[in-house]
């Protein structure tokens, strides 16, 4: 007979309602051949069930009704076939929580809540010779209070993500909703939080589980492809995370090379991992010098845990020479964000704005339906505000007007605003070439090649087709840049220079900014030392002010619109200041090599490469400007007090002697032969010129010549400034006239159109 003691099962055997085997069960247990169909029936000894599972479900549904949780506990095996013959189902408060030091080898990761109070209520079922299971013992009374009906859904054994709920969660997850959003839909649909049947944590667990995928029979195909590619190309890189359940990453030699040129900004595109697509394909995308998307490697995401993303990013980084990008754009995803923070601590991370707008469609569907104007205003608030203050004001007023101040999702998006609202991200290079661009996602590299019908078997051929097509487009852009000279619209030497430096695509953007300067006068508002602040306002738009700080010595400028920081192209405001300051050429710090025709070469961009005759530091004007500025500062400080004045005078004397000496030592200066002899004498005779009276006449001569030269320089400079201003005026005049001509021609053509059409019709 079965006489051995009952075996205890461990905690993990509690009703794990998330597992797949539960799919075909429902709460009343009817499908399991439960004989007692009445739902309010109380267990009694002798009650029979078709299976042990049916008994479990019956006891659990009874427990839900009464207000307690259940757990599967001890069992006894049959001696005949070793199958389980007796099972004890207990109240979840049965027994006591194990004490932390109670022989446990490992430390528990989390502090567990004391949930067990030694309750004796239970049910024992035993397998009959007929094959059915019967209740042999039922203890009804509990030693604790029962849970009221409105809280019973929180008990673990009553939480269950049912089949219909699962498919709804799948759909919502595919649409980009997180656990919070999914739960709010489920609560609404079931008419209350206690009708959902599970908690947000269960929902999150289910969602994480459903993200685990396998490639099935396609895995073999992928591995073969990767091996073959590596055999063909020694620089082909691939990595597989533990076997068939981990992620896969690969990058070819072109991707790796491209990263060395354009690796400043990266988009990790996870659009294809949603359930709309069959293959969890995730490419790393950059932007090349023609503003085209360029590939930095691809991944297959079979596991979306944080550790798997960390694995992926680390392998990607290893393939990309270990060089961290300046910025990364990804989907709005908590797990991806923490993996990025882990692997790229110094990189600026931004959430893809269009991904957030898609999320808004789901989260705010009610408001979007009730208020047709809301969406446009929401986009405007995010995309078109130019300062942080303006955005904050706009956001507050938007939420107020549409009564959304309490909306949880909007609140969370506001808290994360520094990671997706453009106005907060303008100080970092993201490779976007326009601030007012409404979408920040790079038009995907694989658009038109991978869609909802792409499966794992055709993925690689589509991948190859896409890379070949992108390569062809780059070749075409390269050809156009070299062979089609852009039409210059001004006589500006800077425009001509830019046309030779930049690729065609970037030049057109630069040209647009340059043309715009005509409508942007720049006025000095603060001229202190070497940094001058200009106010730049568009004619007729006095409320939109931009401030440009211009350093006279270094000729460096920065603008409050931050276009240069964000996109690497000089803005119209800085260019307007350059016009005022007679800066007629681009210097190396104004040009980002990655946007130039030389982006893919190893040359270092300097003034020579920018088509300048010599380094700007050496030019006569620069020397003159710097010296004048220093002298002015010197005088300002020197007149403050008598003692400072005396020191300043002394130092000046000293300085003029040094300058004179330096002039003797400069062979390029048109000094007399005597001077050169003098230099030799000094070097050989170890004498200083101040001690030797014979040198006094030479000294005076030097002074005389110096004064003459300074005078000549000044005159020269005055002429130069005058010439430049005339040139500028001429240029403006010409532009004004050409603009007028354009308008006139347009109007003329417009008026001629009907006539033209008529004549066509007659024919
Ligand atoms: Zn109990
Ligand atoms: Zn600007």
Automatic annotation (TrEMBL):
Q: Which domain of life is it from?
A: Eukaryota
List compositional bias (Acidic residues) regions by residue number: 11-24
Q: What is its main location?
A: nucleus
Q: Keywords assigned by UniProt?
A: Metal-binding, Nucleus, Zinc, Zinc-finger
Q: Name one GO biological process term.
A: regulation of DNA-templated transcription
SWIM-type domain mapped to chain residues = 550-582
Coiled-coil annotation reads none
**Protein localization:** Nucleus
One example of the protein's molecular function in GO is: zinc ion binding
Q: Which GO terms describe its cellular component?
A: nucleus
Q: Where is this region: Disordered?
A: 1-30, 93-112
Pfam families, alphabetized: FAR1, MULE, SWIM
| Chain's role | Putative transcription activator involved in regulating light control of development.
Give the family, as the similarity comment puts it. Answer: Belongs to the FHY3/FAR1 family.
Q: What is this protein called?
A: Protein FAR1-RELATED SEQUENCE
Q: Which organism is it from?
A: Solanum verrucosum
């Amino acid at each position: 007979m079965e006489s051995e003691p009952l075996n205890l099962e461990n905690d993990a055997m509690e009703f794990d309602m998330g597992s797949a085997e539960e799919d075909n069960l429902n709460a009343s247990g009817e499908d399991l051949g439960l004989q007692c169909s009445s739902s309010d029936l109380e267990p009694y000894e002798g009650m029979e069930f078709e299976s042990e599972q049916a008994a479990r479900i019956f006891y659990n549904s009874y427990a839900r009704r009464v207000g307690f949780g259940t757990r599967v506990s001890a069992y006894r095996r049959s001696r005949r076939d070793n199958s389980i013959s007796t099972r004890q189902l207990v109240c979840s408060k049965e027994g006591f929580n194990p004490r932390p030091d109670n022989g446990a080898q490992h430390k528990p990761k989390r502090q567990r809540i004391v949930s067990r109070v030694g309750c004796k209520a239970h049910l024992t079922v035993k397998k009959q010779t007929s094959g059915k299971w019967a209740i042999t013992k039922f203890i009804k009374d509990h030693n604790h209070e029962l849970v009221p009906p409105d809280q019973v859904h929180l008990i673990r054994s009553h939480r269950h993500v049912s089949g219909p709920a699962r498919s709804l969660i799948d759909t919502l997850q595919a649409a980009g909703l997180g656990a919070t959003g999914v739960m709010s839909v489920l609560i609404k649909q079931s008419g209350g939080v206690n009708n959902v049947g599970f908690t947000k944590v269960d929902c999150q667990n289910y969602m994480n589980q459903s993200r685990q995928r396998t490639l099935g029979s396609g895995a073999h195909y992928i591995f073969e492809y990767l091996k073959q590619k590596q055999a063909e190309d020694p620089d082909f890189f691939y990595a597989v995370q533990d076997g068939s359940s981990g992620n896969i990453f690969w990058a070819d030699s072109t991707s790796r090379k491209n990263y060395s040129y354009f690796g400043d900004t990266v988009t990790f595109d996870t659009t294809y991992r949603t359930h709309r697509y069959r293959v969890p394909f995730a490419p790393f995308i950059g932007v090349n010098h023609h503003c085209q998307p360029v590939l930095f490697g691809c991944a297959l995401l079979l596991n979306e845990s944080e550790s798997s993303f960390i694995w992926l990013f680390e392998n990607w980084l290893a393939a990309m020479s270990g060089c961290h990008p300046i910025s990364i754009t990804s989907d709005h995803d908590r797990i991806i964000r923490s993996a990025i923070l882990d692997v790229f601590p110094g990189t600026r991370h931004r959430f893809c704005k269009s991904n957030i707008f898609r999320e808004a469609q789901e989260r705010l569907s009610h408001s979007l339906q009730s208020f047709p104007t809301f969406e446009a205003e929401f986009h405007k608030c995010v995309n078109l505000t130019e300062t942080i203050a303006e955005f904050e004001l706009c956001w507050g007023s938007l939420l107020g007007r549409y009564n959304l101040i309490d909306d949880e999702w909007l609140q969370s998006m506001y808290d994360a605003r520094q990671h997706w609202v453009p106005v907060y991200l303008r100080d970092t290079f993201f490779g976007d070439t326009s601030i007012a661009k409404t979408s920040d996602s790079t038009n995907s590299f694989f658009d038109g090649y991978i869609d909802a019908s792409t499966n794992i078997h055709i993925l690689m051929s589509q991948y190859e087709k896409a890379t070949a097509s992108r390569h062809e487009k780059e070749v075409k852009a390269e050809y156009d840049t070299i062979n089609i000279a852009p039409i210059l619209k001004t006589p500006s030497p800077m425009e001509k220079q830019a046309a030779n430096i930049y690729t065609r695509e970037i030049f057109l953007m630069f040209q647009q900014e340059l043309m715009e300067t005509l409508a942007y006068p720049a006025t000095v508002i603060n001229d202190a030392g070497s940094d001058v602040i200009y106010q730049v306002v568009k004619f007729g738009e006095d409320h939109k002010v931009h401030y440009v700080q211009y350093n006279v010595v270094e000729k460096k400028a920065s603008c409050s619109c931050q276009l240069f920081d964000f996109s690497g192209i000089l803005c119209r405001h800085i260019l307007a200041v350059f016009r005022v300051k007679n800066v007629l050429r681009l210097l190396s710090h104004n040009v980002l090599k990655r946007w130039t025709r030389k982006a893919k070469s190893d040359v270092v961009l300097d003034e020579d490469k920018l088509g300048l005759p010599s380094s700007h530091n050496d030019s006569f004007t620069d020397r003159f400007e710097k010296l004048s500025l220093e002298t002015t500062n010197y005088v300002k400080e020197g007149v403050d007090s008598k003692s400072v004045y005396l020191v300043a005078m002394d130092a000046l004397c000293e300085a003029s002697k040094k300058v004179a000496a330096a002039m003797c030592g400069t062979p390029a200066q048109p000094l007399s032969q005597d001077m050169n002899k003098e230099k030799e004498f000094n070097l050989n005779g170890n004498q200083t010129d101040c001690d030797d009276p014979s040198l006094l006449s030479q000294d005076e001569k030097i002074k005389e010549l110096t004064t003459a030269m300074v005078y000549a320089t000044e005159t020269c400079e005055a002429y130069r400034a005058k010439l430049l201003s005339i040139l500028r005026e001429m240029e403006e005049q010409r532009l004004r006239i050409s603009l007028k001509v354009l308008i006139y021609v347009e109007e003329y053509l417009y008026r001629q159109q009907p006539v033209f059409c008529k004549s066509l019709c007659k024919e």
